[in-house]
What we know:
Elements: H1 3-53, H2 68-107
Amino acid sequence: MGWWWVAVFLGLGLAGAVVLGLVAWGVVKKGFGVLSALGEASARSGELMAQVEHLPAQKPAHSVMDDPYALRAQRRREQAKLRKKRARRVAAQREARREQLRLRRAMG
């Protein structure tokens, strides 16, 4: 054996260390890029939140559901409409029955 084996192993070790160093440097560089992008996104979200805070407060639209008296009045109106419809229908049926009886008496 000679000293050249030692030189080969040292050269391979040095080459491996250089490759690992380059890979590590790439990973670190990529990490810094991700962190800077995250910082920019955080700053942008802070700006947007500041804009949202300056918007006027939203007032809820008035809802009929808020007022039980309005609900009761609305229900009364609907019930009155239904009663009128039913009364018309019953009156029309009653009139149709009377007409049928008149026709039967006239025929018979």
